């Protein structure tokens, strides 16, 4: 079982993970391509600086607990939380409980979320975001 760790203190806000996510999940011709990562501005008044961080889905499963249609589920082999658009009713219950605020909805109102780059993991590779994170702020770990 896999778990995604994100360390906002280590993240420098370089956006490499954000761009890698877009490149992995969308073709170059898609004008409306979006990353499954979210950009968040963080201010530390004590240190006197502001930076961007790019949190993404940590596959915690909170969304599964509130999905009335079973559209969100934990994949058995790797434990990643996946979305089945065919089952999604568009109720948006998942959106309100996501601690990372990264579930979004497509033009048909169906839930979309990070799949942990499951196709890459099945090939023995790291998720796109982790593979480009130079500080190690994003790590896929065994539970």
Can you characterise this structure?
It is built from five helices and eight strands, in the order E-H-E-E-H-E-E-H-E-E-H-H-E. By secondary structure, it is α+β, with helices and mostly antiparallel strands. The strands form four sheets. Strands 1-8 form a two-stranded antiparallel ribbon. Strands 2-3 form a two-stranded antiparallel ribbon. Strands 4-5 form a two-stranded antiparallel sheet. The model has no long low-confidence stretch (mean pLDDT 91).
Classify the helix fraction into a percent range. 10-25%
The biggest beta sheet reads: 2 strands, antiparallel
- Chain-averaged pLDDT: 91
Dominant shape:
globular
Number of strands: 8
Helix/strand layout:
Blueprint: E1 2-6, H1 16-25, E2 40-44, E3 49-53, H2 62-66, E4 72-74, E5 81-83, H3 93-97, E6 104-105, E7 111-112, H4 118-122, H5 128-132, E8 138-142
């Amino acid at each position: 079982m896999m778990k995604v760790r994100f360390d906002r203190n280590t993240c420098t806000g370089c956006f490499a993970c954000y761009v890698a996510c877009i490149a992995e999940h969308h073709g170059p011709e898609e004008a409306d391509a979006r990353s499954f990562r979210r950009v968040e501005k963080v201010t530390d008044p004590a240190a006197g600086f502001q930076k961007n961080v790019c949190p993404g889905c940590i596959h915690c499963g909170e969304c599964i607990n509130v999905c009335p249609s079973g559209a969100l589920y934990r994949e058995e082999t790797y434990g990643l939380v996946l979305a089945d658009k065919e089952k999604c009713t568009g109720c948006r219950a998942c959106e309100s409980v996501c601690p990372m605020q990264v579930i979004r909805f497509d033009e048909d109102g169906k839930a979309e979320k990070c799949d942990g780059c499951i196709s890459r993991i099945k090939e023995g590779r790291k998720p796109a975001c982790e593979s480009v994170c130079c500080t190690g702020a994003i790590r896929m770990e065994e539970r």
